[in-house]
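BUG: 3D viewer hangs when loading the predicted structure for this chain

Environment: internal workstation, default settings.
Expected: structure renders.
Actual: progress bar stalls at 90%.

Input used:
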Amino acid sequence: VHARREDVRTTAQVLLAEQLEVRRRLELIAHRKGWHIAPAAAGAEPSATGDADQQFVDRQGRALARAVERFREHARRGVDTELQTYARATLPALEHELELVRELRRD
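Structure tokens produced before the viewer hung:
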């Protein structure tokens, strides 16, 4: 993880580890059900201008806020019970990640 700020670097490492585990669990469910899921998207490269650490924090904040909302919705109204259970089990980790990123924004 290439970040200038130590807190951003540490948070990025936590996010990566947690997101890999979330993805791994989703892939196991998909495999059992015979579903194909798209490969994980690569992170966007920082632009040549601006603060790369802040760009990372902003990008992660937006992505995690969307993920939390989607997981909440699926936890409430999902039609597949296994995915609904997965969403409920995963939501606390996503909310934790979002809070970590929000803390970086406050610094």
